[in-house]
Design goal:
The chain is an alpha/beta fold. The protein has helices at about 15-30, 65-70, 75-80, 135-145, 155-170, 185-195, 220-245, 270-290, 315-320, 330-340, 360-375; strands at about 5-10, 35-45, 45-55, 90-95, 110, 125-130, 150-155, 170-175, 200-205, 250-255, 295-300, 350-355. The chain contains eleven helices and twelve strands.
Length: about 375
């Protein structure tokens, strides 16, 4: 039995509808290469800014995976070559047939993403450094949980593409260009979010940078840059976001630190910035508690992202010293950020949460134990 799906594309303007219908005509043959049959597509009666398409997938495939593979194909890129992806604001999908025998009685399932459980339904989240790495995973997860996600970064092209991808998967996401060290840009972004979404519930201060130099090899310029992005960026972010959060009922702020801010660490600038995050998190948690805003820090250990070269000796040694014996992936970081950001952590504020496979709490004695017992 095929899996039928109705896909509704909410566009930014009425004028985009004819262009998008023309693109759907092109999609028909490129989707067929992925065994997806298009049964029809049309404007939505009564909604001048939407297009709906009815498609079917072969039995026992995951429609989200098929669509993701399709969106990574040359066929899709060719179809979309002359269309501005940012015109697609949201995609709603509705399954019209059972996914499997186990779901036999379920004939209609509304989905916003692959595993939507709605822990952030109705919430608006701003994620800095959201274009790649952990920020990307947080943006994808938060959107699947029902949030409207504003992903903010200096990497505009990557950010725009990611936001479009999340929308195509049924989530709500917008990209905003933001250099976290620039106070004026913070205020512009918050004003725009206030105008567009009318609220802000979550700030993930995730943007970060590093330069692995000892104290004596660190120039003043490098010191300023790392402190500026990693610490001042979070200070400016909290200052800019708190008033809107307070006005719309409170919220949750998650500051990304590092085990370099929990333990002794050889990189002076990076480590200092991350120790500073612990201080500013606690100060903000005290200052903002009466405003209904919780503030917490989470501290990743070794995570496979563009910041951490997985072929480097540093990476391999970090993995060796991690009691769980591996690096984390970004989805595990997103899961921890989700806990702190969501109402599941409604009585948690001012904490430092290591998410490091035991590195900071168990690493040294664990390694000694392993060495003693392996000889
Ligand atoms: N990867 C790890 O092993 C690891 C370990 C501990 C802590 N962290 C921390 O986790 C956070 C996420 O890092 P990641 O691993 O995803 O690295 P990443 O380099 O993949 O992502 C960092 C993001 O921050 C953005 N960014 C940098 N400067 C910016 C600025 N001025 N304004 C706006 N955005 C800016 C980058 O463009 C990038 O998208 C960082 O705060 C990092 O220090 C990472």
């Amino acid at each position: 039995m095929s899996i039928y799906q109705m896909r509704t594309y909410h566009l930014a303007s009425e004028s985009a509808v004819p262009d998008y219908l023309a693109i759907w005509a092109a999609h028909v043959s490129s989707l067929a290469e992925f065994d997806v049959v298009t049964h029809g597509f049309s404007p939505v009666p009564g909604n001048s800014k939407a297009v709906v398409a009815l498609v079917s997938f072969q039995d026992e495939v995951d429609p989200d995976t098929v669509i993701r593979d399709y969106m990574n194909s040359d066929g899709f890129r060719n179809d979309m070559a002359n269309f501005d992806m940012s015109q697609i604001e949201q995609v709603d999908t509705l399954l019209l047939a059972p996914l499997s025998a186990a779901e036999g009685s379920q004939t209609m399932t509304s989905r916003r993403g692959a595993k939507d459980v709605g822990r952030l339904e109705g919430k608006v989240a701003l994620i800095t450094g959201g274009a790649r790495g952990q920020g990307e995973a947080e943006a994808r997860r938060f959107a699947r949980e029902g949030a409207l996600v504003y992903l903010c970064d200096v990497l505009s092209e990557q950010g725009e593409t990611l936001a479009a991808d999340i929308r195509a998967e049924g989530g709500s996401a917008q990209f905003k260009s933001l250099d976290v060290t620039d106070e004026d840009q913070w205020h512009r972004v918050i004003d725009e979010i206030d105008e567009e979404a009318g609220r802000l519930d979550i700030l993930i201060n995730n943007a970060g940078t590093n330069a692995r130099r000892s104290l004596t090899d660190t120039t003043r310029e490098t010191w300023d840059k790392i402190l500026d992005v990693n610490l001042t960026g979070q200070f400016l972010g909290m200052q800019a976001c708190a008033p809107l959060m307070q006005r719309t009922g409170g919220g949750s702020i998650v500051n990304l630190g590092s085990t370099a801010g929990i333990m002794g660490h050889p990189v002076a600038a990076y480590s200092s910035s991350k120790w500073g995050i612990r201080g500013i998190t606690k100060a903000a948690a005290i200052n903002f508690a009466p405003m209904g805003i919780r503030v917490n820090a989470m501290h990743p250990g070794v995570v496979e992202t563009p910041m951490m070269d997985s072929t480097s000796r540093l990476f391999k040694n970090l993995v060796n010293m991690t009691p769980l014996g591996r690096a984390a992936n970004s989805d595990e970081m997103a899961a921890a950020a989700l806990f702190l950001a969501s109402d599941d952590a409604s009585f948690v504020t001012g904490i430092d949460l290591p998410v490091d496979g035991g590195f900071s709490e168990l690493g040294t004695y664990g390694e000694i134990w392993n060495r003693i017992n392996s000889h």
